[in-house]
Amino acid sequence: MFMFITFIGYKTNTFNFGYENLFQSTFMLAFFTTVGLGANLKILKSGGKLLIIYWLICGLLSLFQNIIGIGVSKTIGLQPAYGMLASSISMIGGHGAALSYGNTFAKLGYEQAPVVGAAAATFGLIFGVVIGGPLGRRLIYKNDLKPVDDNFDSSKLDSLFKEEKIELTNLDIIKNVAAIIISMAIGTLVSKFIGSLIKMDFPDYVGAMFIAVILRNVNEKVHLYKFSGNLVDGIGDVMLNLYLALALMTLKLWELQDLMGGVLVVLICQVIFMIIYAYFFVFRALGKNYDAAVMCAGLCGHGLGATPSAIVNMTAINEEYGMSRKAMMIVPIVGAFLVDIIYQPIVLTFIKTFVQ
Questions:
Q1: What mean pLDDT is reported for the chain?
Q2: Which of 40-49, 209-218, 261-270 has the lowest mean pLDDT?
Q3: Is the pLDDT of residue 156 over 80?
């Protein structure tokens, strides 16, 4: 809302705002660190073969999204940096990654990159929901699919996410917060080191997120402190909301006018590819059954937007046609954090190769 108010002020030449945006990057860094701390790698083992297949499907999607972004950009004369921001950075990564990489590109001279990233992520968020439900429904009707109780044992996965009610002392809370801060600090240093090796700015949040993954899984083995998923998730939610509020409030929509045409072409191609990819390939790769149809709807949600969009798509189908326990357990796990492990290296390779 505030972003549109500033746009009106600029267009009417009646008022404008100045900012000292000191904490936006800190909030972003804290959010992605909490994502990393939520990554329990036992899930890979507990989710079984189907989780691995779905995870690889998401990695392949990221690869194709970046190929489309660069290919279409070169065809229509759009700068590759903006094509990348309309690819897996914003489609799979969402607003957080889009704005973070947008700031990185801005330092390289692409001043409108944060605006383009935010616009692309918003576009993907909307269309991820628009196409997900209808695509899943089409697969169900065409193939006459019914939910089947195949005795899928989700109890192991449930136990990894349903935290027992534990009482935390003040010291426990401090330790959980300290884990976030330490991961942020070490991760930032790691990112700067990697950046020096590859001779480009490397997003701080990527290093922080992976340090957090390591810390979480070491803690699972040696129990350095009493980890609280609910507390960490709550902190992450607050950090994300503060970060997005600051990021969106300071966006200058008027700077997007000259770019939106080319960026929009890339984004439309991404949506078309997602429909084709999910309908003709992913459905078959996942088994051509009811669970596969629901997971395709979920993929549209987080493959173009965010994990909550995937849950919205799958919930709508489940309420109409029946529950898919496999889809509801596996898709959020991959969309929430596992996909980052595979799509980040792909993104960095494309940036290093095509963005000057």
A1: 86
A2: 40-49
A3: no
| Contact (CB, 8 A) for 231 and 176 | yes
Tokens of 212: 């957090």
Model-wide pTM > 0.90? no
pLDDT at 171 over 90: yes
Give alpha helix (H) positions in the chain: 2-12, 24-37, 42-76, 80-85, 88-91, 94-107, 113-142, 155-161, 170-198, 204-222, 229-249, 260-276, 283-285, 290-304, 307-321, 325-333, 339-354
Q: What is the largest CA-CA distance in the chain?
A: 64
The whole-angstrom distance between residue 34's C-alpha and the CA centroid of its chain comes to: 14
Alpha-carbon radius of gyration of the chain: 21
Q: Which amino acid is at 289?
A: N
Q: Cβ(243)–Cβ(27) under 8 Å?
A: yes
Distances in whole angstroms, Cα of residue 343 to Cα of each of 90, 181, 182, 223, 311: 11, 25, 25, 30, 20
